[in-house]
Design goal:
Elements: H1 5-32, E1 35-42, H2 65-70, E2 80-89, H3 96-110, E3 117-121, H4 127-137, E4 144-147, H5 160-172, E5 181-185, E6 197-198, E7 210-213, H6 219-236, E8 255-260, H7 272-278, E9 282-286, E10 293-299, H8 313-329, E11 334-340, E12 353-358, H9 361-372, H10 374-379, H11 391-401, E13 407-412, H12 421-430, E14 432-439, E15 451-455, E16 462-466, H13 470-494, E17 497-502, H14 507-523, E18 531-532, E19 538-539
Parallel strand pairs: 1-2, 1-3, 3-4, 4-5, 10-11, 10-13, 13-14, 14-17, 17-18
Antiparallel strand pairs: 5-7, 6-7, 8-9, 11-12, 15-16, 18-19
Helix pairs in contact: 3-4, 6-8, 6-14, 8-9, 11-12, 12-13
């Protein structure tokens, strides 16, 4: 059949319109797909081996991200995927600098409007630590997924391709939004203790993946971690502990010196042979161990919630513990903690939580998380008729359970029922004890602000007072000064160094004062225990 020219033109226009509509539909479908960015860091998922039949011998971090994505054309049906090679290293080579750079890149991508999800390919050795770190420092509701593999892509039993497909599917799913940093693994040969609960609703496209969600922490964790890594640690690293000796006293076996016995010396170090020859008591001085164990005995009773918003005594406690823990663990030392609530209503429970000493970065993050967790905050909220804090319970628990000589930080405001002095002194005889006292200036002197309501943080009892009354303010200051004198005398008798941290004090300056105190104690060990006030002036109280 012959088509007339006008009919041919019409048919051509119809066909062109049909093709244009199809192209528009394809373009619209592609535009409707979520955009997922894959950040590659290396690891086994990017590994390659010489033999496909041998998955044990291979080299990690060999395959670039563009080749990984090119080997998975099925991703085009899930999302619009683009790749970026951030690092090409094995996961055991991850350093703090790598973590910070990765966190900055993920944070920047999460703020881009054209990015809907982020996938990080990672080695399995430090995968959980990286996921936990990103969960702390990146604030976004967009899905962030960390993925790895147990075998390289060249192996016959390779699992990386399926894991990456599942990770992109999760990152492209709206159900994964707002769940924090996720980890997807098809094959899970071991339990991941640093990951918490399974997603309540797993995206339908990822039925074969094992998906774990990390708990979202309060905003304080983000600020604290940034302070720890960028502001504090870099200024203090190397001051608390050098490459060969720690400023903390260890339990070394190498004899360094002999000197005359002084008050507060450990009687177990007396050298009886030298004492008999010279007719004067002498003690052995040992070279400190390069590795040490530090324990934090933490008072989380209601009174430590006192202070300015965002800078209360509890905030000071959390910052001090986080920074000092990280300083110690960076050099292989172990840190543990005992948490005492004091207001739990269970008198028989001396300690609420015990974290055994470990040296990993994840352990420090776990400790910080426990201090920032809602249940820890609830313990610092007083109730009417609540019992007074009994700090001696925490100290006796530490005395009974800490067998190996350690450095012990007792962090408290020491607002407690009487009886804590003796167990603190006993603890100081066995261990190197530092009493970290938390205080707020308003606990020492009231301002003239008129009629206010005062509430006892321990019992919940309330009392209205008129701060316009100058005589009342003088009585308050006098009683506070008397309590200060009794408290400092008790700490001096216990033989423990004392560091006072105020809510209006700078944490870095306070830690620098503490390190200066430790340096002076190492250089002149025969002195009495030191007390450093928030102003930085050191006083050497007379031992009783």
């Amino acid at each position: 059949m012959r088509i007339s020219p006008p009919a041919a033109v019409a048919a051509h226009r119809w066909l062109a319109g049909l093709l244009l509509s199809a192209a528009s539909a394809v373009a619209m479908a592609q535009a409707a797909q979520p955009h997922v960015v894959v950040l590659a860091t290396g690891g086994t998922i990017a590994g390659a081996g010489a033999s496909a039949a041998n998955s044990a011998t291979y080299a990690a971090a060999k395959v670039p991200v563009d080749k990984l994505l090119a080997g998975l054309p099925e991703l085009a049906s899930v999302a619009k995927v683009s790749g970026e090679q951030v690092f090409q290293i094995a996961s055991e080579s991850f350093t703090n600098e790598h973590l910070l750079k990765l966190g900055q890149r993920v944070s920047a991508l999460s703020k881009q409007a054209d990015v809907d999800g982020i996938v990080i390919t990672h080695g399995t050795d430090t995968l959980e630590e990286t996921a936990y770190f990103l969960n702390l420092v990146v604030r976004t509701n967009k899905p962030i997924v960390v993925v790895g593999s147990m075998r390289p892509g060249t192996a016959l039993s390779a699992d990386g391709a399926l894991n990456l497909y599942d990770a992109v599917s999760v990152a492209a799913s709206k159900d994964a939004a707002g769940k924090g940093v996720l980890v997807t693994m098809n094959d899970e040969p071991r339990a991941k203790s640093s990951l918490s609960s399974t997603m309540a609703k797993t995206p339908s496209d990822t039925s074969s993946a094992t998906v774990h969600a990390l708990p979202t922490l309060p905003g304080q964790a983000d600020r604290l971690l940034r302070e720890l890594e960028w502001k504090v640690i870099r200024r203090l690293d190397g001051l608390l502990q050098g490459d060969y000796r720690t400023l903390m006293r260890g339990s070394g076996l190498d004899l360094a010196d002999l000197r005359e016995y002084q008050p507060h010396d450990d009687v177990r170090h007396i050298d009886w042979n030298v004492t008999a020859r010279l007719n004067l008591p002498h003690v052995r001085v040992f070279t400190e161990d390069r590795e040490m164990t530090a324990w934090f005995l933490l008072d989380l009773s209601p009174s430590i919630s006192f202070g300015p918003e965002g800078h209360s005594k509890r905030d000071i406690l959390t910052g001090f513990v986080a920074v000092l823990s990280r300083l110690l663990t960076r050099h292989g030392n172990r840190v543990g903690a005992m948490l005492y609530g004091g207001a739990s209503g269970q008198a028989e429970r001396a300690v609420d939580t015990v974290l055994p000493p470990r040296s990993s970065r994840a352990h420090v993050l776990h400790l910080v998380h426990r201090l920032l967790a809602p249940d820890a905050k609830a313990r610092t909220t007083s109730k009417a008729g609540g019992a007074a804090t009994e700090l001696h319970r925490l100290l006796r628990t530490g005395l009974a359970n800490l067998r190996r000589r350690s450095t012990v930080f007792v962090v408290s405001d020491f607002i407690s029922a009487p009886g804590w002095e003796k167990p603190l002194a006993q603890l100081a005889q066995r261990h190197d004890v530092v009493a970290v006292r938390l205080l707020d200036p308003l606990e020492l002197e009231l301002p003239d602000v008129g009629l206010i309501t005062l509430r006892d943080a321990e019992s919940g009892e309330q009392l209205q007072v008129d701060t316009h009354d100058a005589a009342f303010r003088r009585r308050f200051a006098r009683l506070a000064a008397e309590r200060e004198a009794v408290l400092r005398e008790g700490l001096a008798r216990a033989g423990a160094d004392t560091l006072e941290l105020s809510t209006d004090d700078d944490l870095v300056d306070a830690l620098l004062r503490f390190m200066d105190m430790r340096q002076r104690r190492v250089r002149a060990p025969r002195g009495a225990p030191s007390t450093l006030s928030p102003a930085g002036a050191a006083a050497l109280p007379t031992a009783a």
